[in-house]
Protein 1
Amino acid sequence: MANPFDFSSGAVLTAAQLNQIGDYESWTPTLTNITLGSGTVNAHYAQVNEFVHFEIEFLSASDTSFSSTSMQFSMPVNYGGALNFVGLGNGWVRPDGTGTIYPIQVIGVQSSNNIVPYYMQNFTSVQVISVRESLPETWIKSNGVLYMAGSYRAA
């Protein structure tokens, strides 16, 4: 949500307008390397000035398909920082819907304005790799779950 109100000198804001600042709104992220089918994506974000906070819940379905490269979700508002790759937050993924939960790190990619989930593949030599069709394990398409949240500076 961009600033919807006149914040210029002398402007008068109502209590209702002030209460709307930072309200969460839904958005539909563009998916890269995922064909959703009848799966669902629940995504919400709030913006106050340059600060953006987002939450994404991704639920796969039997007709969801994945690429062998990294899952990506578009940002609700373009990233405005100077870093090419920035840590945005964290979350978890459960590719089979009922078994192991894998913690993830959420990275923002400036050049594409995409959100990319990564998980730690090897704890002995901490190596991160993006979540994809067979990583951290093969997705059971009918009930895989991914949840992530984070924040960043808007353009």
Protein 2
Amino acid sequence: MANATSATGVPSPLVGEGQGGGDGRTLPVGIPPTPNPSPQGGGEPPGVAVGDLAIARAHRIAAAVVDPEIPVLTLEDLGVLRGVERRRQSIIVKLTPTYTGCPATQAIRLAVEAALAEAGMANARVETVLSPPWSTDEITETGRRKLQEYGIAPPARGARARSLFADETVACPKCGSTATAKISEFGSTACKALWRCQACAEPFDYFKCL
């Protein structure tokens, strides 16, 4: 279509003509086209690679898996999730067992792999990391609060020194009294001892320092 000529003799665009917007839009002359929305449509922040987002997503999924023996604790609460990385075409989730021979280790591994596969990350796998070793000092403050609310006395801080040299004073998770006594070195699981409160007479598990 031919352009109309203004009174000054300079051609001017007719109505409906102008610069293309790149998506079929027609814009007036002098207004730059607006970039089209990202084809991903996920609202990802600029400068973040897709691989980084996949690693962060895998970390969130693995961190939310619960301990099969103490289902109020997540792997993040326990502090056994040591990191997530991409290795070639696979996502690697690194876990440290709470102690050698823990029967929950394999169950945790399978639960993490199942959670990742259910989220569409079939290329993810779990890798066991033994160094540095895990200790009960890795349990987060949130995890300790959850243990107490669940009726399990959380382990004291300074686990490595206390497990060898210190006499333990364990507060009852139900009434808070420190007038407690150990009944058995092993409670409902090998990582817990059975104690009884002399104030309220209730037995309870104590998560041993490891």
